[in-house]
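Worked problem 6 (solution included).
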Amino acid sequence: MDNTVTKIILGLSKREKEFFSEFSNLDKNKSRSNYLSIYNHILCSGNFNISELKKSYNDDNFLKYSSMEKEKLLEKLLVSSLNFSLDKNFIWKLIKE
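Solution. The predicted structure is:
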């Protein structure tokens, strides 16, 4: 299985993790998203283990769509990373203002 998401999450700095948490809270859908559950699972366990997720979540829909949620997590991580990098760039701050 591709472990790109796991590598990205485990490679984030503390500040990048904080930024991602803030960024994911901007989502208009305030309900707890499954991609955030996968993110927290990877942070705690250090890997994406579907059998551990099965023990934690008895929801069949969660397990059925876990690969789609993992892709959504990857997309959110990449967008957050881009915004984190642009936020530090002085020229981008001038453009935003």
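Discussion: The chain is about 75% helix and 0% strand.
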